[in-house]
Amino acid sequence: MKKKNDGVMAIIAKNIFTYFNAIFLGISVLLIVAGSYRNLTFLPIVIANTLIGIYQQLKAKRILDKLSLISEAKYQVLRNGNKEEVVRGELLRDDVIFLASGQQIPADAEVVEGKISVNEALLTGESDEIEKIHGTHLMSGSFVVSGNCRARLTAVGEDSYIAKLQAKAKEVKEKPSEMVGDINLIVKIAGIAIIPIGLILFFEGIFLKHEAFNNVIVSMVGALIGMIPEGLYLLVTVALALSAARLAKHQVLLHDMRSTETLARVDVLCVDKTGTITDNKMNVTEIFDPVGATPDEVKNSKNLLASYVATSPDNNITAQALKKYYPDGQKLDTVNVIPFSSKLKYSEIETADAHYFLGAPEFVLGDHQNSKDLVNIDNHAAKGERVLVFAKEENENNKALLFISIANGIRPNAKETFKYFAEQEVKVMVISGDNPITVSKIAKMVEIPGAEKYIDATTLKTKEDLRDAINNYSVFGRVKPDQKREIVKAIKANGQRVAMTGDGVNDILAMKEANCSIAIGSGSDAAKQSAQVVLLDSDFSHMKEIISEGRRDINNLTRSATLFLYKNIFSMLLAIFAIIGVISYPLQPSQISLISMFNIGIPAFALAFEANDKKQHGRFIRVTFLKSLPAAITSFLAIASLVIFGMVFSIKSTDVSVASTFLLSLAGFMLLFEICKPMNGYRNFVFYGSIIGLIACAYFFHYLFAINSISYQCVMLAAVFAVAQESVMRNLTSFFGRFQK
């Protein structure tokens, strides 16, 4: 079961009642008490940030809610003798529900008619298929592997097994993605640091320097404002919400916002043949008889096959192709029916006088296959066709009656999509239950790198075999569901991030094991409900948009976070310097607001939404920290030096404050220039627009931002340190750049 999106009031509350908004409120009260109204310039920015966050998240919520409604699983129930179609939330206790292969069981129930095989792996961890007959209990959260049944619901909603399990799971917090986790860490460190630093500055100003209360408050607030990453978390939230909304327009539903980031960093993409390389429609291309079969035997076998198809309860795409080919078969009188199972790789029907099987030749016939029949099978497999055998039990072995060749159509944009993955350094591995020769041929047709390297998964007996295979092969055939999960585990054990696509219940265990799971819209409800990403229109080419969105978020937020971190690190260093030197913090809150607006806020938001699909290497916090450190250290050294020389030459503190503002902005623009490389028309506009904006505000609103004319002596000092900044920052950038690789 997926978490529902936050409600409207929850989104509003989350944006308003934040830790930093509480800090801003406290700071505002102190400034009002101190009578320093000019230094409240940060308030409009805080309010605007909050309103933008609410608006964008509500906008994304509306789009995603519409999409979720379309994709929500529906169930047929019997009420008052009539069949009704309802969603999970509308199910009632004692409803009689119809369950079929591919569905997730939505509530606790008891089978009243029919027989199904279920997999309870998501609940118990055991991947065995369990047969459920009349009177047996069904646990919500398990999924139907094969068969059909009617069941009476015994517990729904919060009373169901899965709901109670999830309630216990809430005690363990969900781990955020790498980027969001790192940003949480940055925000947490800043949130913890500002309280003791603020208190020390306050008590130092009052009790050691004996300054006026008003001056102490302004100095303290100036230090704290610079340390608060006020727009960073908002920027991340809005960027992810907008990505989800943009993907929704491509019929891509994100059950988990983190999935775009995970996909953007993925190293290996595991796909099945059907639904990704090929479409979801199968057609019978040929019915061919076993070597040595007589015309009468073949005719009789075809009639039996038509009857078998009419009798079988299966409704997967293979069964649909057979029913389309044999629409008028007469049903058999059965003693027992075993629907198709991905574990067994065949279905079975027992009549009073015979046992019939339909499935993969290697599993139905075992070692008793005729060598000439094998040649025919391989010839069809080499053309990319799937071969089934219709067989009858005879003398404790199964005898082939007919072979059926089935083919899928290649998706028109499949080749282009897989070419994109190769260009983006993503290895594609094809994992299928079909004949490896068939799978390899299909993979070659869409030019998947390494498609000629295939292996039969039935030969992989140990974990060591599996580890060796994933390093040497790109195509795996005859893979069983539990092996899919083991393959994903082995890839992760290699230190690689893996994404898994799937459309059936046999894919769910592997999808759950993967770093990111993608379900095909035309697949089973259980697969769609288990996946983090759903391609609602089953168009696999949308994977390009998903990866592109994820990389846009990572790359742009890395650049934007670098700007925020620059201000935070600098402010913390300067605050510590002020504490140790027992001096007043040299920058006023309004001056910090001016810098925050044009050095950080506006360019950070402008750069956050630019198209950028380059694969990002390195951990988010390491990259942003090392990129921001040169500018932060440069600004700190320049302004600390200016403060010291200002004291030596008895320069007014207000002059030092104004000069410090421009030194800080200069280093900020140098950093902005670095992260904008390579420059293009849009980035030039952002860069030069920010410079012009800062100069214009400093000129036209000089009183508001505490910008006044300064002495000639201070101008000369500031000019010297400004020139020195370029050289210091260039060398520091070169030094710290070595550690980014």
Summarize the structure.
The strands form three sheets. This protein has an eight-stranded mixed β-sheet, with helices on both faces. Strands 1, 2, 3, 4, 5, 6 and 7 form a seven-stranded antiparallel β-sheet that branches.
Can you walk me through this structure?
It is a single chain. The protein has 741 residues and is an alpha/beta fold. It has four domains: 8-62 and 175-245 and 547-740, Calcium-transporting ATPase, transmembrane domain (Up-down Bundle); 77-169, Calcium-transporting ATPase, cytoplasmic transduction domain A, CATH 2.70.150.10; 266-277 and 411-538, HAD superfamily/HAD-like (Rossmann fold), CATH 3.40.50; 280-405, Calcium-transporting ATPase, cytoplasmic domain N (3-Layer(aba) Sandwich). The strands form three sheets. It has an eight-stranded mixed β-sheet with strand order 8-21-20-19-9-16-18-17, with helices on both faces. Strands 1, 2, 3, 4, 5, 6 and 7 form a seven-stranded antiparallel β-sheet that branches. Helix 6 runs antiparallel to helix 7 (213-227). GO terms for molecular function: ATP binding; ATP hydrolysis activity. InterPro entries: ATPase_P-typ_cyto_dom_N, ATPase_P-typ_P_site, ATPase_P-typ_TM_dom_sf, ATPase_P-typ_transduc_dom_A_sf, ATPase_P-type_domA, HAD-like_sf, HAD_sf, P_typ_ATPase. Keywords: Membrane, Translocase, Transmembrane, Transmembrane helix. It is found in: Membrane.
